[in-house]
Design brief:
Strand content: 5-15%
Distance between the termini: 31 Å
Helix content: 25-40%
Radius of gyration: 23 Å
Shape: globular
Structural class: alpha/beta
């Protein structure tokens, strides 16, 4: 090829690539790709146990995933199309910072209407060696109990699945760490899972006693003589339900799902709170939990529930970063409007970049 022809060909390729990039940008804005196609996510590295880790065994021989092992760290999360990108980043962060990643079993709860086979394929493609189970949660379980809240995303039935973990997970699973899908860990989850719950406590979570607890309930609640005494003789503090250690055996024995449902039924008759699934947890458990160090839930990084503005970390060490609130890091990164702390989430994002070529 002559020099002049080579130059023209080179300019043609540059022009063609510019047009292609612009076309892809328009296409992605008008026709966003399904977040559930397995090939849209990269395969994560495989992580191995250190030599000090025990080998988990399946005492109950229910399946090959050793789902009932007492030696495993059991982690529960919800799984859906809207948040699967966050879920996969969270899973990667848990594995990457664990000293015994092969001893972690993930219990993933999905809506019964979701395509479970596609969800399984997506997770398996990025984490071929992951020990996990997918459970179905029927929307009808809570459909008649949900009241509208200040943000529509909080009204999703799957958001209430955490109240039913004791019913959803196998009876042999005695203790679980529940995690939201909009967080990453930068520390070993085994440290959190080993939180001692004492002789009779059901739940452990970071408490925030400097928060204005009264704002989580309506004036109707506080003006009612019987309801306002709910927290009498309890040092009730706010805690975020996105990170919890739960004793499922004690939960089942105490019938705590029923107790939460009773407050949800009351909410339908007389509006006593505004914020989704959190207030019923506070009504049942606030002042009765084991307090965990704040490093395990640096929450609120997604801003408030209305605008999702940028926020800084709380003072102190960090083991878990949580983008609770309206602003999610993957949404802000895609919109080219990231907050500074979103850069800490980005390395765990398994979504393939444009023009990604599999090796």
């Amino acid at each position: 090829m002559k020099p002049r022809q080579e130059l023209l060909y080179h300019y043609f390729l540059i022009f063609f690539n510019i047009i292609l990039i612009q076309f892809n940008g328009i296409a992605s804005r008008n026709y966003p790709p399904s977040p559930l196609l397995p090939r849209q996510f990269r395969e994560a590295p495989e992580f191995y146990n250190s030599i000090t880790c025990s080998t988990i065994t399946n005492q109950y021989e229910t399946n090959d995933n050793m789902v009932c092992s007492d030696d495993a760290v059991h982690v529960a999360m919800t799984l859906d199309a809207a948040y699967i990108r966050g879920s996969m980043a969270a899973i990667l962060s848990v594995l990457q910072h664990s000293s015994c990643p092969q001893n972690i079993i993930f219990h993933l709860v999905a809506s019964a209407s979701a395509d479970a086979s596609l969800l399984r394929a997506t997770i398996s493609h990025s984490f071929p060696y992951l020990k996990f189970e997918i459970y179905r949660f029927h929307d009808s379980t809570v459909a008649g109990l949900i009241s509208t809240s200040i943000r529509s995303a909080l009204d999703c039935p799957l958001n209430y699945a955490r109240s039913y973990l004791a019913n959803i997970l196998p009876m042999c699973v005695k203790k679980v760490v529940y995690l939201d899908s909009d967080l990453i860990l930068v520390d070993d989850i085994a440290k959190l899972a080993e939180t001692p719950l004492g002789e009779d406590t059901v739940l452990a979570a970071p408490e925030y006693c400097n928060a204005n607890f009264t704002t989580y309930f309506t004036p109707t609640f506080w003006s009612n003589p019987s309801l306002s005494l709910t927290f009498a003789n309890r040092k009730a503090c706010y805690f975020n339900t996105g990170v919890m250690v739960i004793d499922l055996e004690r939960w089942r024995t105490g019938e705590y799902t029923t107790k939460i449902e009773e407050y949800m039924e009351l909410q339908k008759r007389m509006r006593i709170y505004e914020l989704g699934s959190l207030p019923p947890f506070l009504l049942v458990f606030a002042g009765k939990i084991v307090s965990v160090d704040h490093r395990w839930n640096q929450h609120g990084l997604g801003g408030d529930n209305f605008r999702g503005l940028c926020r800084d970390l709380h003072p102190g060490p960090v083991s878990l970063l949580h983008w609770s609130g309206k602003g999610k890091p993957w949404v802000r990164l895609d919109a080219n409007r990231p907050c500074p702390l979103d850069a800490l989430w980005a390395p765990y994002d398994l979504l393939k970049p444009p023009f990604f070529i599999d090796s």
